[in-house]
Amino acid sequence: MAISISLHQQSWPLAQPFRISRGVKSHAQTIIVTISDGEFQGIGEAVPYARYGETCASVAAQIEALGCEFSSDAALQHAISELKAGAARNALDCALWDFNAKSQSQSVSKMLKIPLRPLTTAQTISLDSTQNMAVAAKALANAPLIKVKLDADSVLDKMRAIHVAAPHSKFIVDANEAWNFDLLKAVLPTLKQYNVALIEQPLPADNDQVLAQLTPCVPICADESCHTRHQLAELKNRYQAINIKLDKTGGLTEALALLDEAKQHGFIIMTGCMVASSLAMAPAFLIAQHADFVDLDGPLLLSSDIACGFEFHGTQMAQSTPFIWGEVKAHSNKIAEL
């Protein structure tokens, strides 16, 4: 039976503006793909990211260029594999995994032999004034892991205030490529004193080779510098950790391969996300089962999540029953009306 694909754009209002070193946004714009053979239906969500030259229009065009109908799931899988790593491939790949789970009456976690357990996710503090970031940290003071978005301005002042507000938390500092090498070297020792456990992408991805000269007291994590397993060899002497995001890998298939090879290389594993609904987090949750750091709080940044998404109890996230993706007994997979 022929398999068809369709897509639509979803705009998710955020609970409050989300600011990083590259800018601020009030909505998360995603692409949702549906794969169907008339009996079974699979869905996947991806986030087009301007940093990588993507827009909703360009991602939709990539998907539409494949055509809307395929003779089999194998034919569709081949077409997906021909796409470059990015949001378009991610949405299609994850939708196909979900479709196969439904059509084969077996959950994705069982197909992959990855038992699912509740996980602790980082909670994110958006870039803001020192005072406002301290207030946000105080509200999260019981969180074991907090992710802090920073630029190059007042790094130590902000982290000092945040650490005072949440003295028992550990921190991931995410600079989104906003620092230079001198700043990184200058702040490292003090950041360690402030319970910073990981520093994510401090330098621009095209200027990170200088990290080979550094033996950091806090592990440095590649985000923008690491998309697929093919980059691991050159990153080995620069970074101690990598952040696996499905919108970079181009879906769960490559994310699994990246996870396996990164562990062989001895990298610390972080599982991250773009801001999106639980539908986008669901396949990443499988990768997160093997991660040292989990940052999948995207749905908590939305004013409302998709139906049958993750249940969050403080910093703990677990699949709901029924669940939106990858489960045989999930609901009908009709996209919820918001």
UniProtKB/TrEMBL annotation:
UniProt keyword terms in alphabetical order: Isomerase, Magnesium, Metal-binding
Domain Mandelate racemase/muconate lactonizing enzyme C-terminal, residue spans: 130-221
Cofactors: Mg(2+)
Pfam family, one: MR_MLE_N
CDD domains noted in UniProt: L-Ala-DL-Glu_epimerase
InterPro entries to which the protein is assigned, alphabetical: DgoD-like (IPR034593), Dipeptide_epimerase (IPR034603), Enolase-like_C_sf (IPR036849), Enolase-like_N (IPR029017), Enolase_C-like (IPR029065), Mandel_Rmase/mucon_lact_enz_CS (IPR018110), Mandelate_racemase_C (IPR013342), Mandelate_racemase_N_dom (IPR013341)
Source taxon at top rank: Bacteria
SMART domains xrefs: MR_MLE (SM00922)
Family: Belongs to the mandelate racemase/muconate lactonizing enzyme family.
Name the record gives this protein: N-acetyl-D-Glu racemase DgcA
Organism per entry: Pseudoalteromonas spongiae
